[in-house]
Structures are given as structure tokens and as C-alpha cells.
Amino acid sequence: METIEQLQNEIIDKITEFNEIAEQLKSKQSVSHKNKGSLQWGGGIIGSIQEAREENRLYKMMNEPIIGNKSFYNLCFYIIEGADYMVERQLKIQQQIDKEDKRYYGFVIDIFNCLQIISTAWYNYSPDMADAPITIDKEENVALAPSVKYYSFEPLGKLDAPEQVKAYLKKIKDEDGDIGGGGCFGVLILLITGTASLIGLTCWGISHLFA
């Protein structure tokens, strides 16, 4: 069994890593797959061509490495995995000690703040990509932003947390509770295990598959 000190150090290491990633993201200029410098055509052949080009750019940009070998797409699920990693370690600490011990709540607030910082930095790097509807395996119109928001904070519900954290988790469930009950959860599991494919469908009906 890991000692409390070991568990705390593992949490600290992950918080440090996430804070460093967040700083790198904040240092980068925000990007978009949309061609905002030209006239937007709402329909017809020209509009369809423009939409197809933007979609192609979306899937290309989502898969380009931006932090080390991690892409915007990869980071989404890396954040979610990291949240679960930190929560599981804090939960082990709470299971070993009494509430009166200051280590009981330990890093709960630190984990919460860390997730706020990195999820915001990830989103601000490209709000357009974060909110864009994409196709993952057979699941259509999946936006990454709601998944990051819901599934990165949802693990905190396993902990005995301070009231401000509980209030935020309730707010997320009230606003985005449908995410937790929808088919997107199955896609999330596939993505975290590395078995799902990111698929873009152009207006010509051609599929673009990225590893």
C-alpha cells in the first residue's frame, strides 16, 4: 500500500505537470479552423465548399501536436484521465485518516483549482475547435468542450469535498447532466483506451480517418 506521503507526491507531480501544460497553452496564440478573414457563404455550392474546407482544417488541426506529442484532441482526454488519477489518490488518503486530520481534505481544493486552470487554458487555445461538432466512431455531433467540463470535474464527486467544490459540481450536473447519461460516455471510454477513431465527414460524403 502506498503511504500518504507517496500519494501526496503523486498528486503534486500531476498538478505541477498540468500547470506547466496550462502555461504553455496560455503562451500560444489562440487558433481557429474557421476562415474568418473571408466572406462567409450561408448556402449553395460555394457555401458547401467553404464548409467542407473548414471541416478538413478542423480535423487536421485537432490532430496536430501542440504540447510535446499531444494534440488538441489528445489533451482533452489527457485532462480527463489526469483528473481521475488525482482524485483516486486523494480518495485513498481520505480512506486512511480521520476528518480532523488536515490531510483529509488535503489537495481537494488544489486539484479543483488545477482542473479549472488547465481546462480553461485548453478551451481558450481554440474555442472554435472545442465547441465544434465532430464525429467519433459512430457518435455524431460530439463537442469536446462539454466532455472536458463534465468528465474532468465529475470524479471529484467521489471525494468528501469542501462546500464550494460540492456547489460547483452540482452546478455542472444541473447544466450538463445529460452528458453523463448519454452515448458520449461510451465514446469517452473508447477514446481513453485509445480504440476510437476521430472521423470527419465532408459534404461530399468522404470520410477522413486519423490515427
Q: Which helices and strands appear, and what pairs or packs with what?
A:
Elements: H1 4-27, H2 44-62, E1 65-67, E2 70-71, H3 72-96, H4 108-125, H5 127-131, E3 134-136, E4 139-142, H6 144-153, H7 163-181, H8 184-192, E5 198-201, E6 207-210
Antiparallel strand pairs: 1-2, 3-4, 3-5, 5-6
Helix pairs in contact: 1-3, 1-4, 3-4, 3-6, 4-6, 6-7
Structure description:
This protein has 211 residues and is of the alpha+beta class. The chain has a four-stranded antiparallel beta sheet, with helices on one face. The chain has a two-stranded antiparallel sheet with strand order 1-2. The chain is built from eight helices and six strands; from the N terminus they run ααββαααββαααββ. The chain has helices at 4-27, 44-62, 72-96, 108-125, 127-131, 144-153, 163-181, 184-192; strands at residues 65-67, 70-71, 134-136, 139-142, 198-201, 207-210. The chain is elongated, with a radius of gyration of 19 Å. It starts with a helix and ends with a strand. The chain has one domain (4-210).
Count all strands and give the number: 6
Q: What's the Cα radius of gyration?
A: 19 Å
Average pLDDT metric? 80
State the helicity in percent bands: 55-70%
What is the string of SSEs from the N terminus onward? HHEEHHHEEHHHEE
